[in-house]
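SAMPLE LOG
Freezer: B-3
Tube label: C17
Construct: single chain, 218 aa
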Amino acid sequence: MKLQIIISLILAFILTQAPIVGKYFAMVNTMIHETGHSLMALITGGNVKNISLFPNTSGVTMTGHSSWGSQFLTSLSGYLFASFMSYLFFYLITKGNYRWMVYLLLGFLVINLIFWVRNGYGIFWIITFGAAFIWLLRSGNQTLIQYVLVFIASLVLIEAVTSAFEIMWLSFFSPHQAGDAANLARLTGFIPALLWGVLFFVQALYFAWISLQRVFLV
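STRUCTURE (predicted):
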């Protein structure tokens, strides 16, 4: 198992550097990130208008809010949710509970397709990725299913860290274009985007660290 995870992490990192295929697979993390925004908006009394997923792995969630706190928590939740889900996936894997990881992934795909994602590429990605995932499950090949789930968990972990690093980098050199960090800076006023960028990267490293601890110290 440990060797399998090491290989999956290396392959996930290499794959995400590929220009087209890599971005297609990296979209799993983007979907989870945007789902985090959407769920927090609903939990805090806001609403979700739509989600757009783009070929360059960026995503946009349009939400409405009744309070400053709802808007703040929604802006904060994307990177945190993606990092937490990477940890949860590895937790389930180390417990041998692949079934719940399947339920979570299918749940995210179905909810996003039915309720939130409305742009062309986003719908295309969910349908094609979901169809491939369902085909895999119907194949009944437990070994292959296990390998694919470990790879997806590795992909989410790698992307959670690298995307958080990218937003931190932007927050230093182009703070007004730093996505969630820029939104939080506008909302708080006194905390600059670069500090939010650093926070996002630190939390991503933390969740990656405890994920790998769970793998290699059990």
